[in-house]
Amino acid sequence: MTDLTPDRLREDALLLVPDVALTPDGPLELHAVVVRDGVFADVGPAERIVQTHPSLTPLRLSGHALTPGFVDAHHHLTQSFGGALAFGEPSEIFRRVWVPLERALDEESAYVAAKLAALESLRGGFTTVAESGTRAPVDVDVVASAARDAGIRCVLGLVCNDAADGTGADVDTQTVLAAAEKHLARYDGDDLVRPSLAVSVPEAATAHTLAATARLAADAGTVVQIHVNEHLVAVERSLVRHGLRPLEYLHHVGAVGPQLLAAHATLLTPSEVSLLADSGAAVSYNPVASAWKGNAVAPATVFAERGIRFGLGTDGTRGDGFRLTGAAEFAQRLTYGLASGDSSCGAGWTWWERATAGGADAVGLGRDTGRVVPGAAADFLLVDLDRPEMRPSWDLPWELVRRGNRDQLTAVFVAGRLRLWRGWPPDWDGPALVRRAAELAPQVVGRAGVTRAHPTSVAARRRTAARHEVTAGDVPCPGERR
């Protein structure tokens, strides 16, 4: 497709004819889409679409699939400067790494960190991110501006903590709830930013605030993002304090319902799984976060079987939608499938759908994005299939999950606009942002006072080598007497 250029994708209205379109009915050949005013104005058989829209010139996308963009159901945009600080660390690193890091941000560094994370997400095929609330001491609109300027759709959480949880002091409840109401009204009519509420963990808010934020979010048609049942120590603290596990406690105070977006939900009893299924709550299944810094893997195949709403989230670990879908399937296979002889583990279509339409539903945007259908936001990817990994093709959803890579992304669109072309934004200076982030990050981390349990990989290697040298010195050579 050497004749395709960014300029040809910048028209006010586009009639695109890919080799295959991934629709709710599966991969369909000989289909086309019309993109106009930020939405899919029409989707259907190519012959009909071309005849119905004679004023538009069909743009043939040879060798490409047109797919929905990925939805990251759980992100922390202002933690991007932390990067590898989380590697090799034990659980609950938010107390030692993320909270100090975010609190060391100022307005510029918070903006740059959030925009850097948004750029990484776009490069990984994400067209929507659910930002679960920053603790940076700046107006949350700084994060909104970064997402908007990058060109990514954002479900923007406002932290509504009002109780000391080991990372902060008590805050006046009425002040918190007044700010929540203001936040929910602040982005009315915004093309890319949808407000939501957030509580870091159940113990970070009073029972009154947990129930009140649930009501406010439900009334506003949005979500409350809460880290739930992620770490063993948090489950044990809740049992000691309330005699209930975190999800049970949220249910007890009236905070569980369709408005709840429970991040992680890895440590669940059978009764808690039923609680999720019966309440209509949604979950962000974060398999990479479980592998990097968690205690367990969420039972996502059980979620699918029980009809529990869930999407896939990165938790800010790695902004690559293809690798996320692969991790989602792989984690289920290792933790549940191998033990039970389940060789399918949901099949490729399960994980692809949860990374797109399922994620959109989980974050409260199910009517707006995540699908290639008329009326939905034109948030989509052009995926190059003329690669060794994808030819020959027998089962495209499985192939995208198991073998797809972000280097196959020719273009990323959000709200009908070209936001990424072959890895970089076509209308703003991505490399300059990366350079500025590299300048600011050491200053922020230096101010933060981050506490790590483990050394860097280079320091650990030297330590291991030193131990081996000492051990080798104590072992006599053949024929040597001691």
What does this structure look like?
By secondary structure, this protein is of the alpha/beta class. It contains 17 helices and 16 strands. The protein has helices at 46-52, 98-103, 107-123, 141-150, 173-186, 207-220, 232-242, 246-252, 270-279, 287-293, 300-306, 321-340, 347-355, 357-362, 396-403, 430-448, 457-474; strands at residues 13-23, 26-29, 31-36, 39-45, 58-68, 70-75, 126-131, 153-159, 193-199, 224-228, 260-264, 282-285, 309-312, 380-384, 409-414, 417-421. Helix 5 (173-186) packs parallel to helix 6 (207-220) and helix 12 (321-340) packs across helix 15. The chain is globular and about 70 Å long. The mean pLDDT is 93.
Structural class: alpha/beta
Mean pLDDT: 93
Helix content class: 25-40%
Show unreliable segments: none
**How big a fraction of the residues is strand?**
15-25%
Morphology call: globular
Give the beta-strand count. 16
Main sheet characteristics: 8 strands, mixed
SS summary, helix count: 17
Q: What would a concise description of this structure say?
A:
With 482 residues, the protein is α/β, with parallel strands linked by helices. The chain contains 17 helices and 16 strands. α5 runs parallel beside α6 (207-220) and α12 crosses α15 (396-403).
